[in-house]
UniProtKB/TrEMBL annotation:
The lineage of its organism: Bacteria, Fusobacteriati, Fusobacteriota, Fusobacteriia, Fusobacteriales. PANTHER family: TRANSLATION INITIATION FACTOR IF-2, TRNA MODIFICATION GTPASE GTPBP3. Residues 15-128 form the G domain. Residues 180-278 form the Hydrogen maturase F dimerization domain. This is [FeFe] hydrogenase H-cluster maturation GTPase HydF. Residues 282-398 form the Hydrogen maturase F tetramerization domain. It comes from the Bacteria. Pfam families: HydF_dimer (PF18128), HydF_tetramer (PF18133), MMR_HSR1 (PF01926). InterPro entries: FeFe-hyd_GTPase_HydF (IPR023873), GTP-bd (IPR006073), HydF_dimer (IPR041606), HydF_tetramer (IPR040644), P-loop_NTPase (IPR027417), Small_GTP-bd (IPR005225). Gene3D superfamilies: 3.40.50.11410, 3.40.50.11420, P-loop containing nucleotide triphosphate hydrolases (3.40.50.300).
Amino acid sequence: MSNLNKTPSSNRLHISIFGKRNMGKSTLINAITGQNLAIVSDFAGTTTDPIYKAMEILPIGPCVLIDTAGIDDVGALGDLRIKKTMEVVRKTDIALITVDYNGFLEFDYNIIDILNKNNTPFIVVINKADIEKPNSDFLTELENLNYPYINLSAEQKDRMEDMKGLIIQHSPMEFESPSILGDLIEDGDHIVLVIPIDTGMPKGRIILPQVQTMRDILDNSGIIHTCKDTELQATLDGLKHPPKLVITDSQAFERVSAMVPEGVLLTSFSILFARYKGDLNRMVDGAKTLMSLKSGDKFLVSEACTHHVQKDDIGRYKIPKWIDEKIDTGIDFDIVAGRDYPENLKDYKLVIHCGGCTLNRKEMLGRIDISYREGVPILNYGLCIAALYGILDRALKPFPEVNEIWKKK
């Protein structure tokens, strides 16, 4: 079982609770976890915004529970709450749809339709079994539709082990991302990690993608050498044999590429995460669009996390500046940050996304899907920087199939 403190939220199974108001969603969360995590009230609409709680639940393991506002909420504020609830679907690995003994109403069918369109598995939880048995016609409907379901009382905390068993049984096997680079290295391979220390680096620590990459190398019995870009040449000179792979922060790509011998594979943390969190094959499409931008076009910069913006912020300042210098002037852009991601991208030629380390894989893939449905290619910061500096060919060499796709463009 994974240790709670060692499993980032983005790598946990995301379990979302959906349903009409006053169906006992918060009570169900408290029953599953055995804790009073969510506020419970007889007053309909107590939960107003999605509530996220990362924890470890035996025997499920590390997970994130998401309590949502009632999908039948009313009024202008209710519409906003429903919108937030729908956004949760993008990151949901498995959903619990809470209903009572009367069966489905229009609201339930709507959320089921959305879950099906997003290929999100779900379990129907018939709550309030302590009050009344479910309608027999409703049970027949569930069986005819082949929907997994369970009848229980969250209030009395009965059948919780059965509930957990169903979650394990119906959770997608692929909810966890593939190995970051386990298929690229062999036991004993030497890997050099280049981590510049600049104003964007959190004081006293290194950022999540770098930590996760280190752990993945250790899990695959690789040998790590870590240095700043200013110490890279000394690090390479000190090795008895050339390393199998050099992984750099994307912002140091140009300097690092000049130092690393051509026979040594080179890529960036961000490009590794394009594959780990998303779809590197499709993101390569965005690199071609990037190089064809012209004055009057507009692109969208999407940052998955919220952070203090500094004067040399990579997404807000550096990338737009480099695009202006290396492609064309007069190319405009907008910024979205955090959980916001627009459904309507018609005003944009391209989306340039961060590495997505704070997103789970389901949500990153969902954002890629939205972009392609809208006909707007997407790439991430690492691919963007490598393309701008003319070294994307080299940065994709560790991934032969993707490199072939890029060469054909």
